[in-house]
Design brief:
Elements lengths: L1 H24 L1 H7 L11 H24 L2 H24 L6 H28 L7
Helix pairs in contact: 1-2, 1-3, 1-5, 2-3, 3-4, 4-5
Amino acid sequence: MNGLVRAGLVVLAAIQVVLGVWTLLFPASFYNDVPTVDWTPPYSEHLFRDFGGATLGLAVVMIAAAIWLERRLVIVALLSYLAFSFPHAIFHAEHLEGDSPALSAGLFVVVVLSVLLPATLVVVAARTLPRRTVT
């Protein structure tokens, strides 16, 4: 199960690295090229660059959790991911009317998976990763 937890953390970290670099370095491209992002204008370069930096910060935590695979660090990293992905999924679930039914359905699946994967990994990590004793 450790391999499963590590793989999940790596996948989540990779997603955050891609999104973080994109929004930090190319905020206008992220706004214009990602479906649904421009549904709620106005564009704010400052906001997108800040989001990119925060996203990269989350990626650092996910990578650290994947490297050290310490139960508390893994769970905190995954809960941090959920602190973003859960409200993000709720927002998109309530705003599916902005594009084609196929795009809306695809988006809904992706945002639900962005909650289910880390939530599942929290449970797996809590049950399988060993507790470390503090000395």
